């Protein structure tokens, strides 16, 4: 199995990058670590941890999504409910709650989910966000907990990946065939190598 390091980035969309930067960088304290752009397009990355980021595309005509409360069921096409950001300790959770309230954003009370405590809010694009702190004495990573009274058949197989459920790789891509195609990042690389300059 592949070794995962976290979420490299979540990619969201905005029609107002300045307001988005003010919220994620200046209010929540996530550094703006990369920015790509040209007329009609921007793609900015904010650092959550030294391995995880949230990114925003800015496209002309994007509007905030309709506000939808976290975890409330919907019908029809949907792919996303909310994103939760882990914080280091209870003081961090209360600091975020206080900062959001001081800035005039709605924020929930602290909610006890047993293994995490959370607050809920929305960013300026109406993206539902949550901030969570782990309750140290209840570690579901160490001891997974399935308390669904009627878990799906597949979930009843347990927490660990189940071998034999998908076809095996019969021909791994040889090193000489591994080709990486150019994307949007050549200007970032040039900047990091000292050949570029900030505009």
Contiguous uncertain segments of 5+ residues: none
In the sheet with the most strands, the strands line up as 1-4-3-2
- Count of distinct strands: 8
CATH class of the domain at 83-140: Alpha Beta
CATH topology of the domain at 83-140: 2,3-Dihydroxybiphenyl 1,2-Dioxygenase, domain 1
Molecular shape: globular
Which structural class matches the secondary elements? alpha/beta
Instruction: Please give the count of helices.
Output: 3
Rg result? 20 Å
Helix content: 10-25%
Short summary:
By secondary structure, the chain is an alpha/beta fold.
Secondary structure elements and pairings:
Elements: E1 9-14, H1 17-27, E2 32-38, E3 41-47, E4 53-59, E5 83-86, H2 90-102, E6 111-112, E7 116-122, E8 128-134, H3 186-192
Parallel strand pairs: 1-4, 5-8
Antiparallel strand pairs: 2-3, 3-4, 6-7, 7-8
Features:
about 200 residues, alpha/beta, 2,3-Dihydroxybiphenyl 1,2-Dioxygenase, domain 1, four-stranded mixed beta sheet, 3 helices, 8 strands, globular
Can you tell me about this structure?
The structure is a single chain. With 199 residues, the protein is an alpha/beta fold. Among the domains are: 54 residues, 2,3-Dihydroxybiphenyl 1,2-Dioxygenase, domain 1 (Roll), CATH 3.10.180; 58 residues, 2,3-Dihydroxybiphenyl 1,2-Dioxygenase, domain 1. Helices cover 16% and strands 24% of the residues. The protein is built from 3 helices and 8 strands; from the N terminus they run E-H-E-E-E-E-H-E-E-E-H. The strands form 2 sheets. A 4-stranded mixed β-sheet has the order 1-4-3-2, covered by helices on one side. It has a 4-stranded mixed β-sheet with strand order 5-8-7-6, with helices on one face. The radius of gyration is 20 Å and the shape is globular. It starts with 8 loop residues before the first strand and ends in a 7-residue tail after the last helix.
């Amino acid at each position: 199995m592949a070794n995962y390091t976290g979420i490299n980035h979540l990619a969201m969309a905005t029609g107002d990058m300045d307001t988005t930067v003010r919220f994620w960088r200046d209010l929540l304290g996530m550094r703006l670590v990369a920015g790509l752009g040209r007329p009609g397009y921007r793609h900015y990355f904010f650092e959550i941890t030294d391995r995880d980021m949230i990114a925003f595309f800015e496209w002309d005509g994007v509007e905030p999504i309709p506000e939808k409360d976290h975890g409330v069921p919907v019908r029809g096409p949907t792919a996303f409910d909310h994103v939760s950001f882990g914080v280091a300790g209870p003081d961090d959770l209360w600091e975020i709650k206080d900062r959001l309230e001081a800035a005039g954003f709605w924020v929930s009370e602290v909610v006890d989910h047993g293994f995490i405590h959370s607050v809920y809010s929305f960013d300026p694009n109406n993206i539902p966000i949550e901030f969570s702190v782990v309750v140290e004495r209840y570690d579901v990573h160490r001891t997974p907990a399935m308390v669904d009274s009627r878990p799906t058949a597949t979930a009843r197989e347990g927490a660990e990946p189940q071998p034999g459920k998908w076809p095996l790789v019969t021909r791994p891509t040889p090193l000489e065939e591994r080709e990486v195609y150019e994307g949007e990042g050549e200007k970032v690389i040039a900047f990091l190598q000292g050949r570029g300059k900030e505009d």
